[in-house]
């Protein structure tokens, strides 16, 4: 399935859109990490929770559960929130 990568993580993938596989978001992130080592750690913390600055969208709908089931036709977008002061 297609996965859109946020600009701050392009150093891992070198391209904005990549292909990955997985029956759940968690499996998809594991596949992304196999293809692009170190990427998952930037998205998920040591307790397997989403990092506070990351957002996940599946087919345009925000998703909060890493065990969310995915279909091969789904489009996944990873968004990194910006902060500043």
From TrEMBL:
This is MoaD/ThiS family protein. It comes from the Bacteria. SUPFAM superfamilies: MoaD/ThiS (SSF54285).
């Amino acid at each position: 399935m297609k996965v859109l990568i946020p600009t701050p993580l392009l150093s891992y993938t070198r391209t904005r859109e990549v292909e990955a596989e997985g029956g759940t978001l968690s499996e998809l992130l594991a596949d992304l990490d196999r293809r692009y080592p170190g990427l998952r750690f930037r998205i998920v913390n040591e307790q397997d929770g989403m990092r506070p600055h990351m957002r996940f969208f599946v087919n345009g709908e925000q998703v909060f559960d890493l065990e969310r089931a995915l279909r091969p036709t789904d489009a996944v977008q990873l968004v990194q929130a910006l902060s500043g002061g």
